Amino acid sequence: MNFDINTIVYLLEIIVGGLLVGIGVHFVPVGGAPAAMAQATGIGTGTVQLAAGSGLTGLLAAGLMMSVTDNIWVILASGAVGAGIMIDATMLTGSWIYAYAVGAPFASAKVTYDPITGWSQPPYISPGTVGQGIPTICFVSGTIGGMMGGLGGAMIYYPLYLINGNAALSAMFAIGIFLVNAVLASWNIQGTIEGFHDPKFKKWPFAFRACAVASVLLAIAAVMITGGA
Prior knowledge:
Elements: H1 5-24, H2 32-36, H3 47-66, H4 72-102, H5 136-164, H6 167-189, H7 204-228
């Protein structure tokens, strides 16, 4: 396959998309098993699932929009908004379960006062836990992370589809790129994270470098294979 200017642009879009998926999950409140037991703030599932979920939602939303328009900005915006809504709905449902089914109040052990509302957090934290529920700052951070993941998903799928015109083939390779970056982000976070106010968030440059290397290699392989196909 000849790497002309269009192909280079496609490669860059895929690389940026992979980075957005990997970095975006650092904004999402990932609680994992501790959150499922109301011992930590965040969504009660893992980093990989949330990163891949936001990327896949962005892919689906972008694919739907591509059926009615070829405006790239509208397509990318659809991916971002679709994934943002998905993450918001997940966080909201999780909060309802915490509050009305488990009886755990919304609180964070990573900050003394919520940076947005200014509400004190320690009085509502149970001893031996790192907060319960999803306080305001986590919800805002999660929305940003979800939209980043969705935008990344759209940016990966769109150029692959332009290269080969096969929706199934493009989606298959896009999903693979999501999952690789999601696993790298998971290894970097190592457990739970609340969002951009969490001390673990400062580790994002390590994930950025790892995801950059992986995304470059995956983008070249995806473009060459799908273009040849």
